[in-house]
Structures are given as structure tokens and as C-alpha cells.
Specification:
This protein is of the alpha/beta class and about 270 residues long. The protein has helices spanning about 5-10, 30-35, 45-55, 60-80, 100-105, 120-125, 145-150, 150-155, 175-190, 210-215, 230-235, and strands at about 85-90, 110-115, 135-140, 165-170, 195-200, 240, 245-250, 265-270. It has one domain: Vaccinia Virus protein VP39 (Rossmann fold, 3-Layer(aba) Sandwich). Strands 1, 2, 3, 4, 5, 6, 7 and 8 form an eight-stranded mixed sheet that branches. Strand 4, helix 9 (about 175-190) and strand 5 (about 195-200) form a beta-alpha-beta unit. Helix 2 (about 30-35) packs across helix 3. The longest helix is centred in the N-terminal third of the chain and has 21 residues, at about 60-80. It is globular, with a radius of gyration of 18 Å. The structure holds S-adenosylmethionine. S-adenosylmethionine binds near residues 32, 66, 115 and 174.
């Protein structure tokens, strides 16, 4: 196995001095990268990702449909006039990142990516070397208040103005109390007119396969908490939930860009009144 530094250089990333990729442990960001046909994953990540595919072959399609939801929801916020985006649990850069979607509408809009896996920082910095409107930070959604006070975030984001905050396919990696605390902090800290964009894994659409698919994350540091429709809807307490409410990801304002067949995730968009 190459060193972290050599591996990243080969894969287009730049290693901060203290980076430890822990290639022997599967990581959610790299498992997801494999489903999206990325190349930033190690053998244990691929084995975990393949386990999910063998339990349910539509898992990579679910990842792609989640990215398509990201696009639709980000566009909605940008077309409503939002020019500041915070993407928490952003994952490895892939096709159709938030800044690509937003900058197609307004190249001056600001985007902050945050992920607790340092590999995201290493790749994001390389991708965004010349981009003064976008940055990548390492941080954890369980420290949301602290994240929103970071000088690097405040350099791009004015919290007195509306923001679109993304929690896509990430809240299922924390427990109920931590997830609730995060969405409550988002609501209390963001200005009126802000948007919450959320997607979340569920077993409800595939009850007979959910337990086997959930084993995919058993050997990661996080595990996974599939949640039901009612629990995902509760995350929007205090937000005006936009039509069509919380739905399976592909059914949220479909635009015909994907086959719309998977039922592994719920999604919704809320606006703070
Ligand atoms: C399945 S990927 C989703 C990527 C992207 N949000 C999307 O929906 O396409 C989940 C990401 O969340 C990150 N993550 C997991 N737990 C986290 C936490 N507690 N705080 C911040 N990021 C986290 C992982 O490292 C991974 O990159």
C-alpha cells in the first residue's frame, strides 16, 4: 500500500501534514464514492460497498438519485435568491457538486463544504485551489454551533442573511439526540428566509432487504441509523416544509433526469419563515 501522501497525489489530492486516511477501515465517504463510480476508495471500502450491492443492486442508483435531488434542491434555493450555501457531510468531490450547480446561476455565490473525514479536505483543497468563493473545512455536525462560528466559514458566509444548509445523506450517521440537536441548532442560528435541504436513509421502502444493507456500515466507525418517514418529518419542526413534503428522494419534484426507481432515502426542503 502506498503512503497516504503518495496515494493522494496519484488521486489528485493534497495531504495536510497530519493526515491519516486509515485505509484499513471502510469510511462512509469512500463507500459512497465507489457507488458513484469514483476512484477515491480502498479495498475495504470497496468490499463494504459491494456488500450493499449484493444485498440490493439498486444502491448505486440510490446514490445517483440522491445527487440528482441535491441538484434540484440547490437550484430551488438559488432561484429563490439564496447566495450562501453550507454543505455539511459534503462527501468527496464528485460530479455535480454544490458549487457547480450554484455557480451556473451566480458565479459570486459562496459555498462552504464541511465533512468530518479529512480525505474530503485533502481532495477539496486541490479541486478548489483557485476558487475564492468556495472553501472546504474539516468538522463534525455534532459541533454545529462551533462550526458556524469558525472564522473560515464567517469569511464567506454572513449569518445575518439567508443561507441554504444541506444535510444530505449524513444525519443517519449520528444518533437521535445528536441529529435533533443539529437540526435545532441550524434552525436557531440561521436567518429567516433560510433553507434546510435534507435527505436521509430509510429501510421503509425495502423492509425485506434493509437489515442486510445496513450491515454495510457495521465495520465503519459510525454504523447507520435508518429512520422512518415520521422521524425524518420531525427534523423539519419549526420549518415551513415545502411541497411535496418529505418523500422518497426520486419523488421530490422529479425532473426526468433519473429513472426515479429507488426507495432507500427520504428527502425534504424546509424554509425558515
Ligand atoms: C453518504 S456521504 C453523502 C455525501 C453528500 N452529502 C451527498 O449526499 O451526496 C456522507 C458523508 O458524511 C460524512 N459524515 C459522516 N458523519 C459525519 C459527521 N458526524 N459530521 C460531518 N460529516 C459526516 C462522511 O464522511 C461522508 O462524506
Amino acid at each position: 500500500m502506498n503512503s497516504n501522501r503518495e496515494w493522494l497525489a496519484e488521486h489528485g489530492g493534497q495531504a495536510p501534514p497530519s493526515l491519516d486516511l486509515r485505509p484499513d477501515v471502510p469510511h462512509p465517504a469512500r463507500i459512497y464514492d465507489y457507488w458513484l463510480d469514483g476512484k477515491d476508495n480502498f479495498p475495504p471500502d470497496r468490499a463494504a460497498a459491494e456488500h450493499a450491492i449484493s444485498a440490493s443492486p439498486d444502491i448505486p442508483a440510490a446514490a445517483r438519485e440522491n445527487r440528482a435531488f441535491l441538484h434540484r434542491a440547490v437550484r430551488l434555493a438559488a432561484e429563490a435568491g439564496i447566495r450562501q450555501f453550507i454543505d455539511i457531510g459534503s462527501g468527496l468531490p464528485t460530479q455535480g457538486n454544490v458549487h457547480d450547480a450554484v455557480h451556473a446561476i451566480d458565479p459570486t455565490a459562496r459555498v462552504v463544504y464541511i465533512d468530518n473525514d479529512p480525505i474530503v479536505l485533502a481532495h477539496g483543497r486541490a479541486l478548489l485551489a483557485d476558487n475564492s468563493t468556495t472553501t472546504v473545512l474539516t468538522g463534525d455536525l455534532r459541533d454545529l454551533d462551533e462550526l458556524l462560528d469558525r472564522p473560515e466559514l464567517r469569511a464567506l458566509i454572513d449569518l445575518s442573511q439567508p443561507v441554504a444548509l444541506l444535510l444530505l445523506a449524513v444525519l443517519h450517521f449520528v444518533n437521535d439526540e445528536q441529529a435533533r440537536a443539529a437540526v435545532q441548532a441550524v434552525h436557531s442560528r440561521l436567518a429567516p428566509g433560510s433553507y434546510l435541504l435534507l435527505s436521509h436513509s430509510t429501510g421503509e421502502g425495502n423492509p425485506e432487504r434493509a437489515a442486510e444493507v445496513a450491515k454495510t456500515w457495521k465495520s465503519t466507525d459510525t454504523g447507520i441509523n435508518f429512520r422512518g418517514h415520521a422521524a425524518v418529518e420531525e427534523f423539519f419542526e419549526g420549518w415551513e416544509l415545502l411541497e411535496p413534503g418529505v418523500t422518497f428522494v426520486p419523488l421530490w419534484r422529479p425532473d426526468g433526469s433519473t429513472a426515479n426507481t429507488t426507495r432507500w432515502m427520504y428527502a425534504g426542503v424546509g424554509r425558515k419563515g
